[in-house]
Design a protein that fits this description.
With 142 residues, this protein is α/β, with parallel strands linked by helices. It contains five helices and five strands. It starts with 15 loop residues before the first strand and ends with a helix.
């Protein structure tokens, strides 16, 4: 079995890989620039659809966390979540934070039940970072 090497930056800090799944390229770019500039310990990769998310995963990428939009054409965020978290899925251990413009109470309730967090757009990059760090630190303790 191949052992995954922990990725580290030049200061020896562990680099966390974040997969952003959103049909808006500007959202992916802003998260990538924002997270990579404020901490230096994130590698952000993007997928413009649910289908592309699974293509990236099947090519061997293993993110530490997925930021998942709900309202996307084709395979929406709920379907992506269900496929990722299926019992037989090799990806069911990857934590998910829903990041979406869907700001109604029902979505929020379901999103916080099924995901590790639910963040509404527009968002503050520092709030997003705090949520990511909290989820990853909780996962480390489990």
């Amino acid at each position: 079995m191949r052992k995954l090497l922990e990725r580290k930056n030049l200061r020896g800090i562990s680099i966390k890989k974040i997969l952003v799944v959103d049909d808006e390229p500007l959202i992916i770019t802003s998260i990538k620039i924002g997270l990579e500039s404020i901490g230096g310990n994130y590698e952000v990769i993007g997928a413009n659809s649910g289908e592309e998310c699974f293509k990236i995963l099947e090519e061997g990428e293993k993110p530490d966390l997925i930021l998942l939009d709900i309202m996307m054409p084709g395979m929406d965020g709920w379907k992506v979540h269900d496929k990722l978290k299926a019992k037989e899925s090799p990806y069911n251990d990857i934590p998910i934070i829903f990041l979406t413009a869907a700001n109604n109470e029902d979505y929020r309730e379901v999103g916080t039940w099924f995901g590790e967090d639910y963040i509404e757009k527009p968002f503050d990059i520092m709030d997003l970072k705090k949520s990511i760090d909290r989820v990853l630190n909780k996962r480390k303790k489990d």
